[in-house]
Amino acid sequence: MNNAILYITIGALFDTFGDLFMKNWVINNSKAYFAFGMLFYVVGLSFLAYSFTFKNIVIASVLFLIFNVVLLSLVNWFVYSEALSHKEIAGLCLGLMAVVLFEYN
């Protein structure tokens, strides 16, 4: 795995946790969830920004977003029992195909 993909993946993981903290903030109206969400966002976006030193900014950003959406979809399915429609699953598959095309051009 090259350095850019490693930083993008770590950043997407932090961003996903930030999203989950924000979801809990909306549900529970707790300032602690908001603070942790913002902290995770900053760390995740810092990894994304550092990945720009290895990969084109557009490609790195698209990969980051695709990884984040896939991770969120999995967490929503396993933790919150929010299933995706067949159309949404097809969209995720297209996103994963985009990752393959970007990485193996």
Characterization of the model:
- The protein has 105 residues and is mostly helical.
- It has one domain (3-103).
- Helices cover 83% and strands 0% of the residues.
- It has four helices and no strands.
- The chain has helices at residues 3-28, 31-51, 57-78, 86-103.
- α1 packs antiparallel against α2.
- 21% of the residues are buried.
Q: Could you report the average pLDDT, rounded to the nearest whole number? A: 90
Any idea how many domains? 1
The class by helix and strand makeup works out as: mainly alpha
Number of distinct helices: 4
- Series of H and E elements: HHHH
Gap between N and C termini: 16 Å
Helix content: over 70%
Backbone CA Rg: 15 Å
Task: Tell me the total number of β-strands.
Answer: 0
Task: Please report which band the strand proportion falls in: under 5%, 5-15%, 15-25%, 25-35%, 35-45% or over 45%.
Answer: under 5%
**Spans with pLDDT under 50 lasting ≥5 residues?**
none
What oligomeric state is this?
single chain
The coarse overall form would be flat
Tell me the major beta sheet. Answer: none
Quick overview:
It contains four helices and no strands.
Outline the secondary-structure elements.
Layout lengths: L2 H26 L2 H21 L5 H22 L7 H18 L2
Helix pairs in contact: 1-2, 1-3, 3-4
Provide the descriptors you would attach to this structure in a database record.
mainly alpha, 105 residues, 4 helices, single chain, flat
